[in-house]
Input
Amino acid sequence: MSWRMETACFGEWGHDMPIVSRGFHGRARETRHRLPPGQYETTDFPVLSAGPTPRVNPDEWEFTIRTETGTRHSWNWAEFTALPSQTPTVDLHCVTKWSKFDTEWQGVSLDVLLEDVETSADYALVHSYGDYTTNVPLEDLLDGKAWIAYRYDGEELAPEHGGPARLLVPHLYFWKSAKWVQRIQLLDEDERGFWENIGYHDYGDPWREQRYQGD
Amino acid sequence: MARAAVSGRLGDRLRWTTARLTDRRIESDAARTLVFEVPGWPGHLAGQHVDVRLTAEDGYSTQRSYSLASAPDGESVELTVQRVDDGEVSPYLTDELAVDDVVELRGPVGGWFVWRPEQKEPILLVGGGSGLVPLMAMIRMRRAVGSRTPFRLVYVVRSPEYQLFVSDLRGDDPGLDKTYLYTRSTPAEWPRPPGRFTASELSNAGWPPDFEPTCYVCGSTGFVETAAGLLVALGHQPGRIRTERFGSSG
Ligand SMILES: Cc1cc2nc3c(=O)[nH]c(=O)nc-3n(C[C@H](O)[C@H](O)[C@H](O)COP(=O)(O)OP(=O)(O)OC[C@H]3O[C@@H](n4cnc5c(N)ncnc54)[C@H](O)[C@@H]3O)c2cc1C
Output
């Protein structure tokens, strides 16, 4: 793994201000294109699903984080939606090659959900209602990079787009943003999820075009 | 010697903090050990790493991971960085960063590629190039706690000029066996000609699989693939082989 993300910038609530390293210039900046290699822009919102869309009633919805030692942290819908939320505007990049710019979400930052979680785990396996799973390094869920989102474009999140709530981790290909999210299991060792088991990339950085295993 | 923090609240552990360079040492032609003071450092496990973030005047910012080279020691943290010539970050750290300069750092990160002194099984360390760094932290940790756990180190390195931690490893660590394999050039009168390492060398320098050692393999992606593959072929359980890939297939 390698972490070379440039500081994400989500305007309104701001990122912590980095301090300048004397004499560091970085490599010459090429024009930053908004489209990662091999992507094209779309203005509608395609759906990629492995099977039928599960319908989950918010009354029965519960979200759980379980650590590698088995400790559970859970929130029901009322508790979850009472947590402080953010409204990130992000670009989405789907492995099927579409990208969508400036999508507007509302959700709870994983920093908030993980703040009091005791763990030394490195990986997360994200489980969804309907048994979809996907693996993400725990670091990629932290530091303002990921949310559990429950509103899209000013409305409740539609089931085909992952409602009641989905993971939103926009710096990775969009299949990592698990729809119908139910729980996150923290793990010492990486464990492949659904798409990863059938040949999709374990990490999935669109800017390095990590679509499939071996990319 | 501070006790290693095994885990902590993630909110604290992975927050960016400012680290000030207090000392730098020449480790090899291409590598420098950088000693940072990190206020509030919680301690770490041998094998863990930190993320370092550099930011330019114009706000451009980038990050890299570096293994912790030292055993836990208060708020002092050592990294050993090997220059990648066309690299963006490593030449800055090895050549530019001066005492009292600051970088941003967060960690410790990683709970899998670690050696805990409670582990009782024999240990095999296989390092390629700068991949020795986290393994050195394990050797230093073993020393710091006075462990007698049997360790074997196989260090594969291009040439003596690139060899890390030479004087530190010259000392006598009872129960630590060291094997150096040079791939391009050797010290004078070295019995083995330079060249790729082989399965039988790894077998001779390591432990028989039925001793059930834990194997730690670290280096470039290509090195780790090769070495870990050889260990599996020699009969080691894949579950007993832990790897850390530094990136690049070099
Ligand atoms: C968990 C982890 C721990 C690490 N610990 C250490 C450590 O203790 N000491 C250390 O020196 N490095 C370590 N690294 C590698 C380090 O993070 C950087 O990748 C390395 O310093 C190169 O960064 P750069 O900005 O100089 O090069 P970049 O600008 O990122 O890359 C420039 C060129 O060099 C190639 N390259 C990248 N990394 C390497 C490499 N390691 N060897 C050869 N070529 C490379 C790239 O493919 C590219 O072509 C670690 C990496 C990881 C993931």
